[in-house]
């Protein structure tokens, strides 16, 4: 009985150490890049799923931009979409993009079901096949990026961010 418990604990510790090592290696790899993917708005082409307008994400018209990268099936992503849409009037002086690889029908259904205010928010899908995690160099959803007028990253928010954190970043 004790040997089974010892074996189980040993396996768990080895797995945790392996995951930590992989995380450290990824951080090292990213820190050694001269140009990290997410330091500037990626030059990807997206399509607004409501207006059918096609544009480059980096074409920000010299305004600050918020890019929320999400998966509609992710609970925390849904909460961020709701949070940002509830404060859309507070962030109407910048470009706001919700970017996803999720099914457009699923996204529209979620927005409709939750009565999200999306006026002034571009709800986008990728035009070409791609992997948002690779494009934005992230490991999980949701991720919120705030970019300045020159498309340079100001702040990268992970799931734990609040709307006041985002608003404060925009006001700086």
Give an overview of the whole structure.
This protein has 172 residues and is α/β, with parallel strands linked by helices. The protein has two domains: 1-32; 37-171, Glutaredoxin (3-Layer(aba) Sandwich), CATH 3.40.30.10. It contains five helices and seven strands. It has helices at 2-31, 75-86, 104-113, 132-135, 163-171; strands at 45-48, 54-56, 65-70, 95-100, 121-126, 143-147, 153-157. It has a seven-stranded mixed sheet, with helices on one face. The longest helix has 30 residues, at 2-31. It starts with a helix and ends with a helix.
N-to-C order of helices and strands = HEEEHEHEHEEH
Instruction: Quickly give the structural class.
Output: alpha/beta
Number of helices: 5
**Rg measurement, Å:** 19 Å
Which strand order do you get reading across the main beta sheet?
2-1-5-4-3-6-7
Q: Oligomeric state of the chains? A: single chain
CATH fold category name of the largest domain: Glutaredoxin
Could you name the CATH class of the largest domain?
A: Alpha Beta
Helix fraction, binned, reads 25-40%
Biggest sheet record: 7 strands, mixed
- Enumerate the spans where pLDDT stays under 50 for 5 or more consecutive residues: 30-37
Shape by Cα distribution: elongated
- The CATH H-level superfamily of the largest domain is Glutaredoxin
Mean pLDDT: 85
């Amino acid at each position: 009985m004790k040997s089974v418990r010892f074996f189980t604990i040993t396996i768990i510790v080895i797995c945790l150490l392996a995951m930590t090592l992989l995380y450290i290696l990824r951080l090292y790899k990213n820190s050694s890049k001269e140009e990290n993917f997410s330091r500037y708005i990626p030059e990807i082409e997206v399509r607004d799923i409501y207006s059918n307008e096609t544009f480059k994400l980096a074409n920000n018209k010299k305004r600050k931009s918020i890019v929320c990268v999400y998966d509609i099936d992710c609970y925390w992503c849904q909460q961020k979409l709701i949070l940002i849409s509830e404060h859309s009037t507070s962030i109407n002086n910048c470009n706001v993009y919700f970017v996803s690889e999720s099914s457009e029908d699923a996204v529209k259904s979620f927005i409709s079901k939750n009565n999200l205010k999306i006026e002034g928010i571009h709800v986008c899908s990728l035009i070409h096949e791609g992997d948002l995690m690779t494009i934005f160099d992230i490991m999980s959803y949701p991720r919120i990026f705030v970019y300045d007028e020159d498309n340079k990253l100001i702040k990268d928010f992970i799931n734990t961010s609040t709307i006041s954190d985002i608003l404060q970043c925009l006001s700086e």
